[in-house]
């Protein structure tokens, strides 16, 4: 029995290893959620709106504090553990293997839906449009619109707040700042963030209708609430 229990523990550890997280299957894709049907095209590069949004990025570049820069750099990471500051000390991967695997799929869903839209619109990033922009986060040259980080932050926030409605306000505030930090970091325009919030909401609404999502959501929710003592 002891050897059997050890084998189960080893299998569980392998099942939720970081390497496998990268291979998580998305809950849906752009074939089912075509963002070009939900979002208007991004502003043109030479439009008044883009020029104003570029001005916001440049203003933040000279007004952001070291603390703001540090938070923007930290939020460049795309995973649900960025919500730990509002979820408390029990919110950690080693305590939540089922929850962790579930959110690996949630994060993978963002890329599967958003990347095709980015590739289609190909909006230049602020630093690609103006040499004056100096991002403090990791440079990305993929399409700027919509913001993938904001999409996944909004999506994770909605799903997580449905698991812990007692913290809904704090969770959604955290999700909002997750998107804002992309502007502060100098890697996105305001309209990219706004589109990401719409995209995350649309994706959440769609996948919550699916049976596979509902089944895994229930198990992840139960594990999380038990870990949090709720």
UniProtKB/TrEMBL annotation:
Keyword field: Signal
Domain Phosphatidic acid phosphatase type 2/haloperoxidase, first and last residues per copy: 97-208
Signal peptide: 1-21
Pfam family, one: PAP2
CDD domains, A to Z: PAP2_acid_phosphatase
Gene Ontology annotations for the cellular component aspect, listed alphabetically: outer membrane-bounded periplasmic space
Molecular function as annotated in GO: acid phosphatase activity
Name assigned to this protein: Phosphatase PAP2 family protein
Native source organism of the sequence: Bosea spartocytisi
């Amino acid at each position: 029995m002891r050897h059997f229990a050890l084998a189960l523990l080893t299998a569980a550890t392998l099942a939720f290893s970081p390497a496998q997280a990268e291979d998580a299957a998305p809950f849906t894709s752009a074939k089912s959620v075509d963002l070009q049907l939900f979002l208007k095209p991004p502003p043109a590069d030479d439009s008044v709106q883009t020029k104003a949004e570029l001005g916001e990025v440049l203003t933040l570049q000279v007004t952001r504090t070291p603390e703001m820069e540090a938070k923007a750099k930290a939020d460049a990471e795309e995973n649900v553990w960025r919500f730990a500051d509002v979820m408390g000390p029990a919110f950690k991967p080693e305590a939540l293997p089922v929850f962790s695997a579930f959110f690996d799929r949630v994060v993978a869903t963002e890329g599967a839906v958003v990347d095709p839209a980015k590739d289609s619109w190909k909006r230049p990033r602020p630093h690609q449009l103006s040499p004056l922009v100096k991002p403090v986060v990791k440079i990305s040259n993929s399409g700027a619109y919509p913001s993938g980080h904001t999409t996944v932050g909004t999506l994770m926030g909605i799903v997580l707040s449905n698991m812990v409605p007692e913290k809904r306000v704090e969770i959604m505030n955290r999700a909002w700042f997750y998107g804002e930090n992309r502007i502060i970091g100098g890697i996105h325009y305001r309209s990219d963030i706004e589109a990401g919030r719409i995209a995350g909401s649309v994706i959440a609404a769609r996948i919550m209708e699916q049976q596979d999502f509902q089944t895994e959501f229930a198990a992840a929710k139960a594990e999380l609430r038990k870990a949090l003592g709720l």
